Amino acid sequence: MKIAIFSDSFYPELGGIQDSIALSARTLGGRGHQIQFHVPQASAHDFAIAGIPEREIDLGPNVSVCRYASFHIPSPTKQSRFVPPTFRRWRQVREFRPDVIHTHTFFGLGWEALRTAKKLHVPLIGTNHSAVAAFADYMPFARKTFAALTFGAVVRYYNSCNFVSGPSRSVIEDMQALGLRVPSDVVSNPIDTDVFCPVTSEEKRALKQRLSFSEATIIYAGRFGMEKNIDVLIRALPLVRKSIPEAMLALAGHGSDEARLRNIAKEGGLESAVRFLGTLSHQALAEAYQASDLFAIASTSETQSMVLLQAMNCGLPAVGADSLSLKEYIPIEAGFRAVPGSEEDFSSKVTRVLKDRQEGERLSAGALTFGQKFSPEAVVSRWEEIYARHASLVR
Question: What is the pTM of this model?
Answer without folding.
Answer: 0.91
